[in-house]
Amino acid sequence: xxxxxxxxxxxxxxxxxxxxxxxxxxxxxxxxxxxxxxxxxxxxxxxxxxxxxxxxxxxxxxxxxxxxxxxxxxxxxxxxxxxxxxxxxxxxxxxxxxxxxxxxxxxxxxxxxxxxxxxxxxxxxxxxxxxxxxxxxxxxxxxxxxxxxxxxxxxxxxxxxxxxxxxxxxxxxxxxxxxxxxxxxxxxxxxxxxxxxxxxxxxxxxxxxxxxxxxxxxxxxxxxxxxxxxxxxxxxxxxxxxxxxxxxxxxxxxxxxxxxxxxxxxxxxxxxxxxxxxxxxxxxxxxxxxxxxxx
Length: 295
Known about the structure:
The protein is mainly alpha-helical. Helix content is 80%, strand content 0%. The protein is globular and about 45 Å long.
């Protein structure tokens, strides 16, 4: 796929906006998580997004609610709830940058899941990228501390694992379903399931919390839209590395609001995760391209 310079700049700008929105959403969630349960935040985050996306879906020329794989949509939605719960809980326990980066480790899990589920062989370069990435994760967990496998970091890493599962379901659904239908059912299922769960852990709302929830939902929706548009102008191989700028925005916001400063070891870990994850995405995509050319 040959890209002209204008498309590359559009993709870069849109991806940077998406990364900034994800960082802002994470900060807003961290502010709300101390007063509300994760289920409430997830519900309002996706309920508002469902309201926004429904008119666009209904006004589309080929809109239809029919799906060939209702169970795949359901499992994808449940995996999404698990991913968001892990991320939102991790945000209360970890610095924003750490929690965000651990959730962005999903490119490291995808090749492993492809191997286990679809028996997709891993090239040596992809495997090298995965090993480098998990070495970075090991450093972010901070081996200088006594609690190496602290549950807070494992929860953050769980967000990356469940996001990888979400991506696997998308990979399957894209073969038969439209992107609009996939997005609609994702929002709807998460809204319904989290709506039931939140009544078991309900916390009273306030005007300030309402503002935070609406803000988190709006920037979260904007994140997904801008990222989708970025992928129209560039391949995931180019977009995925740029999404790691989220960590820079998250670290800056964490420092400005809470005075959070990543340790030197964590910073090295950040760099290794970015190198490993982007490397595995690049080499896997290059391998796929070569296989198509051979066929």
